[in-house]
Amino acid sequence: MSTEIKTPDLEQIAANYKKAVAPLKRRVIICGGTGCIANGSMKVRDAICAELEKAGERVEVVLDHHDCSKNEGATYFSKSGCQGFCQMGPILRIEPEGIFYCHVKPEDAAEIVHVTLLGGEIIDRLVYVDPVSGKACRHEDEIAFYARQTRVVLANYMIEPDDVEEYIARDGYIGARKAITEMTPEQVCQTMIDAGLRGRGGGGFPTGLKWKFTLASQNDKKYVICNGDEGDPGAFMDRSVMEGNPHAVLEGMMIAGRAIGADEGVVYVRAEYPLAVERIRKAIADATEYGLLGKNLFGTDFSFTIRVMEGAGAFVCGEETALIASVEGKRGMPMPKPPFPAQKGLYGKPTVINNVETLASVAYIIRNGAAKYREVGPQNSPGTKTFALTGHVANTGLIEVPFGTTLREIVYNIGGGVTDNTGKVTGEDFKSVQIGGPSGGCLVPDLLDLPLDFDSLKSAGAMVGSGGLVVMNKQTCMVRIARFFMQFTQNESCGKCVPCREGTKQMLALLDDIIEGRATAETLDLLEKTAKAVQLGSLCGLGKTAPNPVLSTLRYFRKEYEDHVFRKICPTGECKALARPEIDPAKCKGCTACARKCPVGAITGTVKNAHSIDPEKCIKCGACKAACKFGAVKGI
Amino acid sequence: MQETLEKTRAMVHHLAAVNEILEKNGNDPSRLIPILQEVQEVYKYLSKDVISYVATSLDVPVAHVYGVATFYAHFSLNPKGKHIFRLCDGTACHVKKSMGLLEAIYKKLGLSDEKRTTDDLLFTVEIVNCLGACGLAPVIVVDGEVHGQATPEQVEKIIDEITAAEKAAAESETK
To answer: Between A330 and which of A325, B12, B24, B90 could a Cys-Cys bridge form, CB atoms 3.0 to 4.6 Å apart?
Structure first.
């Protein structure tokens, strides 16, 4: 092994990269995010490559940065990180024209090669058609889903995540070099404070202040931890950033290391994200090879190394002190604060823990300055936020918008509107948006014009959380949603403190009483009281916020709870125990379809006469409703 | 004597892979989680023997290793089936009726919340919190392959295919 210290010349690498891509004839970018790969995007790529080679064209899958003559006239097939529009996957983009194809299948390969790549024509059946206007969108900027976003963290989402040189060619590691060679640690912290970047993991604590506190802790050893334990069900922003732009995360960690005086970093990634683990590992190996990680970086005495730690499936490890325990090889149980990790963190040393998205924003701020960062978003929450938009919405996927964007803009303009259970956009189905996962709350139609930021959401009884936005239509029972989250937190409660361990269990039992028709007025009262006690008495963020889904649904959907409790009905019909199936004699044609389907023989009636259900025999399975062509079965 | 010797020999052989993993991780107790992850990768679950062997080797109490092994959802103390169905029950999958898929699997394989592995050790069903593929909800991962926008019929078909393939393999083996 050579002991010589390499000092990477970023400008030279960037110039080399540009020289290498210049002779390319085309570039075809295939989405390589988890969603598109699951939909077979790599098979699509292989099929198109094979077809193109058959047509006598030169194809490159891995770019040769050194021998440019190899790239002359070739078509370069690169993958990208998650492009965000997961539901339309696999997604394909053809450069230089910027043609956007969706739902591409390996069978389309021959047509794509002959019509588009060689013929220069667009294949109309593969372009995206706007479901509302019916307009065919041939390029990405015509698609409302993309056109209405502002991308800072996801700006480089088209780059090849496994190619460190492409990242460098897009000003990568310039921020790290600036922080290491031109700025003092104090200046780095101050720039972050001026930029007003607030932690994207949910709490919204100012990043610059966190760094300043850690810098102030005197110690011979400090650590930077990247929190990639994205446990919120319904959120996948951090996964997408780690998969799509891993070097941005590493660069952010280097800058954090410079700011606090740490020489070691740990990326803690959920093991449910195998692709993110793989890409981060490759990025660390490449950065080390290029001399961007290691000893005496950029010719200074600053050294920094990064390693990966895979989580083992515990939601509570998203909490900083629990995460530290987990890295140390212990059970992931939170500790009381203070002492904060800034004073006593990993192995008892001062530690800074930042979320993936926060770290991915850092290099941009250092490179462009605090003022530039503040240009978007409101003064109290500057910058942009990525959200995972899912549930009953026409366009599901990953989006990035400035803080302060309204829910209406997100759900209707970017998301394309709310869908019913059959997937159709109806325009009248919006019931609620759940934001912030198990720690967050539900927002209602009245709050559609609320600008989303840390403070406004808090006052509405929800929180940004990590940024999962789950849209729900009118066929969704809110009591069941509250129960779903309660079950989640009850399962994930680490068991250390009593209010959380026992309180969540009791709350879950009370919700079950409501759903199964055993509840009385006292149940609701007790539920609220227990919720308050859990909120007040729990040790860590998991317990403190666990009652939020219940409290916010109680606040906005109290009537729905009362229907369950007092009238013993579930307005959406989702709660089977409360179902009272009946046949509407006015609608029943006496076709006998339901009677034949009923597994317990609870339906009686003769041909062409209205049928009826025996409530004693009925097991509320809903088979009759599914069988009825006339919509005559009600109450289930 | 001979019998004990044989037993010990078998045990040493059985634990050879653990030794390798421990060594690779420098016998460092703070690397307990990666160690258990790698051990489970090899043995498919964490047996009593393995847990106490790891504890002794790292010079930590068995209770500590057991505590970690039971705390994290990824570790299993029971043998798992050959084919693993990981059903996502994140919020997006949940509102898109992931529980309907679970019911279909339970019914097809005769399993329940209490019994997640079939007696012939062919199938195990696991529920995971979120796989992060919410855009494709509901999602199920069968032996590492992701199936998005899954339907109960589709899942039943997958089970049928695996069962048929296993049957064919068993038949060709007996021949």
So the answer is: A325
Integer CA distances (angstroms), A345 to A212, A225, A306, A326, A358, in order: 15, 10, 17, 12, 19
d(CA B30, CA A490): 28
* Structural Rg of chain B based on CA atoms: 19
- pLDDT-based confidence at residue A6 (cuts at 50, 70, 90): low
Interface check A434 vs B, CB under 8 A:
yes
Reduce the DSSP state of residue A581 to 3 states and report it. Answer: coil
pTM as predicted: 0.91
Of A407, A433, A438, whose CA–CA distance to A548 is shortest? Answer: A438
| Contact residues, chain A, for B32 at CB < 8 Å | 329-330
Which residue ranges in chain B fall short of pLDDT 50? none
Q: Do A484 and B91 touch (CB under 8 A)?
A: yes
Q: How far are the Cα atoms of A74, A88, A253 from residue A154, in angstroms, in the given order?
A: 28, 18, 17
Sequence-ordered list of residues with C-beta below 8 angstroms from that of A284, at least 6 positions apart, any chain: A250, A267, A293, A306, A307, A308
Q: What's the Cα-to-Cα distance from A186 to each of A199, A300, A352, A423, rounded to whole Å?
A: 19, 17, 15, 53
Ordered strands of the A441-443 beta sheet: A397-402, A384-391, A468-473, A430-435, A441-443
A581, pLDDT greater than 90: no
CB nearest A390 (choices: B135, B146, B148): B135
Contact present, A75 and A58 (Cβ < 8 Å): yes
The predicted model gives A128-155 an average pLDDT of 86
pLDDT band per the 50, 70, 90 thresholds, residue A5: low
**Domains (ranges, CATH) in chain B?**
2-71 (no CATH), 83-174 (3.40.30.10)
Mean pLDDT throughout A70-75? 88
Q: CA A223 to CA A233: how far, in whole Å? A: 28
Binned at pLDDT 50, 70 and 90, residue A491 comes out as: very high
Examine the pLDDT at A131 and tell me if it is beyond 80: no
d(CA A397, nearest CA chain B) in Å: 5
- Does A230 contact B at CB distance below 8 Å? yes
Contact A329 B31 (CB under 8 A): yes
**For residue A346, what pLDDT is reported?**
97
The pLDDT of residue B144 is 82
Q: What is the pLDDT of residue A1?
A: 40
pLDDT tops 70 at residue A3:
no
pLDDT interval class at A321 (50, 70, 90):
very high
Q: What share of chain B is helix, strand, coil (3-state, %, to 5)?
A: 60, 10, 30
**B18 near A CB under 8 A:** no
- Contact assessment for residue A165 and residue A244, using Cβ atoms and an 8 Å cutoff: no
Q: Tens of pLDDT along A524-545?
A: 999 999 999 999 999 999 999 9
Spell out the domains of chain A, with CATH numbers in brackets: 13-146 (3.40.30.10), 164-373 (3.40.50.11540), 384-476 (3.10.20.600), 479-567 (1.20.1440.230), 579-634 (3.30.70.20)
CA proximity to A305, closest of A335, A340, A267, A336: A267
Distances (CA, A) of A246 to A8, A34, A104, A253, A458: 19, 14, 26, 11, 31
Q: In the structure, how many helices (H) and strands (E) does chain B have? A: 8, 4
Searching chain B, which residue's CA lies closest to the CA of residue A332? Answer: B71
